[in-house]
Amino acid sequence: MKFLFSTFLLLSSLMLAAQPDFKLSDKLPEDPAVSTGVLDNGMTYYVRANSEPENRAELMLVVKAGSVDEDDDQQGLAHFCEHMSFNGTKNFPKHELINYFESIGMEFGPEINAYTSFDETVYMLKVPLDEPEYIEKGLQVLYDWSCQVTDSDEEINAERGVIIEEERLGRGANDRMRKEWLPVFLKDSKYANRLPIGQLDILKNFEPEVLRRFRNDWYRPDLQALIVVGDFDQEAMVAEIKEKFSAIPPKENPRQKKYFDIPGNEEDLVSIVTDKEAQYPIAYVYYKHKLETASTLADYRKRIMENLYTGMINNRLAEKTQQADPPFLAGQSAYSHQIGPLSTYTSVAVTQGDKITTGIKEVLLENERVKKFGFTETELERQKTAVLNNIEKAYNERNNTKSISYANEYLRNFLMTKEYFPGMENEYAYYKEFVPGITVEEINQLAKDWVTKDNRVVVITAPDNEKTIVPTKEEVLALLDEVENTAVEPYVDAVANVPLLSDEPFGSKVTAENKLDKVDAVEWKLENGATIVVKTTDFKDDEILFNAWSLGGSSLYPNNDVVSVDFTTDVMGESGIADFDEITLNKMLSDKVFSLSPYISELREGFNGSSSVKDAETLLQMLYLYFTEPRFDDVSFQSLMTQYATVLENKSMSPEANFRDTLNVVMSNYNEREKPLSVERLDEVSFDRIKQIGKERFKNASDFKFFFVGNIDLETFKPLVEKYIGGIPTLNTQENWVDLGIEKPEGVVNKVVHKGQEDKGIQYIIFHGDFDYNAQNQIQLNAVNKIMEAKLNEVIREEMSSVYSPGASASTAKFPDSEYTFSIFYGTAPDRLDEVKQAVFKIIQDYAKNGPTEKEIATAKEKLLREREVQLRENRFWMNILSNTYYIKNGDFSQFGNYNQLVENLSVESTIKAFNEYFDFKNVISVALAPAE
């Protein structure tokens, strides 16, 4: 460790020597790549040219007004105003706004959306740029949202049902408990009674003029910001924005904008809330602090210190969950902005039902340990290395930053947090300058500043049942005093200064190389039989994605092994590797940027992972060890079982969990292997079988195919592949999956789950059947999905005002049988479940008879092409193409590259045929959730 520490100091001194002379009193600069300013009418703007993704622009209108600005008779109307902005403006009557943007390939939800919070309302568009009209229309919409929303009586009354269904969708145990504890946490603040969803009686009965009063008061340029980031000429965009948005007149005699405080509390506040449908106990201890904004380099340096502190204390808390009988299932502490003008240092414990006080105590004792003894030098140096590696990766990727990332940064700058945006070049320089000089004493002082006796709030939410032991308020207060007076020992940072691999792999060479011209990739065959596929891209400068699989999966095991198989990779992931337990391994690899996770599905087993460019060798080393020295730790196994037992203990009381379980077993036609996981089924788990299964599934490189996509230099990468993957033992055997005969039920299935106290309904409608598996049919089915999603929004959301967020999902599978599944889902009032379902059936029947319009086909085509346009520049997309083509087509890429032509082949006639083929009313599954009878 001494050598590592000395090396770090040497590197730090070299970095410091190259840096400019920063003064902590200096003001944080604004990124010069951003054009920002304030128009004469008071509107703020942020404009930045950015080419990721290409040919797209992120547009935002930010309104510095939310639910906290509502008058007593307006509760919920800030959010209602947001909805109404999509239902008619001066230049886009009624629903023409969504219709227009969907016609150019944009999706409602991912690319046309908005949200309302306590302090702000934010509108978002992701606009294509291949036609000047598109960005012009996008800016016009922002202009209209700013000051020209219609808010007609007719549309307001029509939207009530949608808002009420959104409120209904959020009901449940967590919502009920939050409404009890939030007024305690926010005591004596207006925030306490201004949840954005509002009051149901107001939503049902307010006069339209009350909503228009809110918009008139708060939708004005001095409270608004325009954010435009995308692949355009920045100077021209700034000129256009100034010319266009300066025409919005300033508000005459504007209503005074108030900023509401959240008072502190000298005495501890405690809220203990239970609910029969709650899943597991969670305890929060909040320490309230005034929001501090950053404006100087000293402030930025403090943010780095906070980052270091958070990483170190959460590493300690994570170690406690590795115990066989952990004091809590998950624990975390962090300092962050909470709501409005409030920041908190928050310590959280997710606990077992009989260990709520134990969980709280153990998390708080770690705060006390830091206050009394601080962190160790080795912890800090390790965390410094980790944050420097992360900022280096971000710096390396600065030219590939997505436009939405920049837009969100400017959004936070405009709002109450006033987050600065000095630019990645500056931030990287600040980290290199400040991190080496931060001392452990400075970090330790943070705990003393944050963990205070005043302004404390304790919130406990828990299941209401006989097994859960919930402390009283008096017991909680006594516990807080007990923690402060408990003797704690200093933390001992046990580290292992040994290499990850004790012996170097012998390796094997590439024996054959095949160019995959259609996808611009290369295939290597190794002497040990492994197949490697590598695609080099320039989409990310510091990203390599990894995937591997072989055939077999859980299908090779009998029914009595199913639960053990399901837990095998969880246990492997929690156990560490080779001779290193998880705690030791995490410390050893804290300076690496990579991830690797094994999995076992029904038909395959494999790995998913990623790494930075410089840590690709570590990824390969870990992969090699999973094959050659997997670790199965009994303590980790016991800890995992404890965690699952707690999560499952009250699962049966959750209406949504019951509904999901019922849906899954119905879809499998009640196959024994698909029984829901329960506390009782945990008894079927065998640690001995897990060890055996894990070794069996990951032992034979010749049975695996390995895929890498990213910024890969083939010349330097090939020797690493030969060494590590080439060093994995082989058995020269090829396994395959077994068809278990799990089939969806034939015929018409109707099932209603009656569970829960809320007046809440959920509906899933699933069509399924055999599928002629080819690219044209897949694209046709995806087009049907796009058409159905739009129509569901038009009919059952807007016309019937009966649902909030309807959805449709089409999927296909080649193995074990070639089949399709088409699911339609939504939430609605229980007494409307049948009415809405019949409306959905009528939509399908109309399409099957008359087909979609030419306009609907054109819109679906445009959406498919727009999606593809973005996907072609994403590593994840290419990983899916490579891996799935090897799985489904045995590596045959001959048909790849004709996607656009297959989309163009879509027609009204082909879609009518598809509706008749894929929606068979004699073969449909309907599962619904309704309240308990």
Which residues sit in consecutive blocks of at least 5 with pLDDT less than 50? 1-19
CATH class of the largest domain: Alpha Beta
Q: What global shape is seen?
A: globular
CATH architecture of the largest domain: 2-Layer Sandwich
Structure description:
The chain has 933 residues and is an alpha+beta fold. It has four domains: 35-245, Cytochrome Bc1 Complex, Chain A, domain 1 (2-Layer Sandwich); 269-484, Cytochrome Bc1 Complex, Chain A, domain 1, CATH 3.30.830; 539-704, 2-Layer Sandwich (Cytochrome Bc1 Complex, Chain A, domain 1); 749-930, Metalloenzyme, LuxS/M16 peptidase-like (Cytochrome Bc1 Complex, Chain A, domain 1). Helices cover 42% and strands 18% of the residues. The chain is built from 29 helices and 23 strands. The strands form four sheets. The protein has a seven-stranded mixed sheet, sandwiched between helices. Strands 1-2-6-3-5-4 form a six-stranded mixed sheet, with helices on both faces. Helix 2 (77-84) packs across helix 8 (208-218), helix 11 (356-373) packs parallel to helix 16 and helix 24 crosses helix 25. The longest helix has 25 residues, at 775-799. The radius of gyration is 29 Å and the shape is globular. Residues 1-19 have low confidence and may be disordered.
